[in-house]
Amino acid sequence: MNSSDIFQIRSILQSAQSILLAIPKGADEDVVAASLALYLTLAKMRKQVTVVSPDEVKVEKAHLFAIDKITKQLAGGNNLVVSLPYEEGSIEKVSYHIENNRFNLVIEPRGEKLNFNPDQIQYNYGKGEYDFVLTLGVADLSSLGTLFTNHKNIFSGKPVINIDKVETNSRFGRINIISPVPVSQTVTMLIKSLRLPLDQDPASNLYTGMMSVQGNISLATADPDTLETLAYLRRANAQLLNGSSQPNKSAQQVVPAQQATTWPNDFSPVSNGVTPNAGALEETPEDWLKPKIFTTDKQPTEL
Predict the structure, then answer these.
(1) Is there a contact between 240 and 65 (Cβ–Cβ < 8 Å)?
(2) pLDDT tens across 183-210, in order?
């Protein structure tokens, strides 16, 4: 993850209001946990977030926070749009009738005839209601099944940020963050780099996702980046979740508190020395929470 990626993601995120998080069929606990942590974090920033999966989430992942937010439905992108040339005052009315299992759209001209040829009529599906798409653990868009095949316009018409841990990833995104570490670890450091708010619930999801891949971690043998990530999550009071959605008390201190305070200053919760409130790792920059002003070229249709 380089500074250019962070700059681009920050720019996309700041101007976005509606976000799609997509995970593949059969996503493991690491990927599911990372997606739900992002859902909770972005929702806290008053973003409209949809987490979508082509299949049902299995019972063994029910302990993760916000697990009920995963859906199989996409907003928008399903409407058939019939587009044709139009001159002011050229259409008298539009109606329809059904005959022999055929839907017939009838356009009645105001004059003698409509001033266009049939080959000028265009058919397409609506663009959907998302400002950008973030995929997690998706090695190839085909792994999203019908979510992709039935909504290709959503994935081709908007910026796609692709985060995965598999080196064979097809790198289909505008931004591709592919690293052979748990997706939860990559998402944790992305949240840190973007200075997004991180509360205990999403931090616990990320911690649990990492542990589902890493297992027991030794301070003597673990990768330094992994230890830095865990220390960051522990400062947000992350706890390992068990099957009853309660913290696993025996696994809370994978990184002891006295060790967590010894990391370099650039991994401290905030750079200005202010101690964050309990349950929140950082103060959210003021501009994140301000209402955004958007413009649209959509105009009311008058016939």
Answers:
(1) no
(2) 999 999 999 999 999 999 999 999 999 9
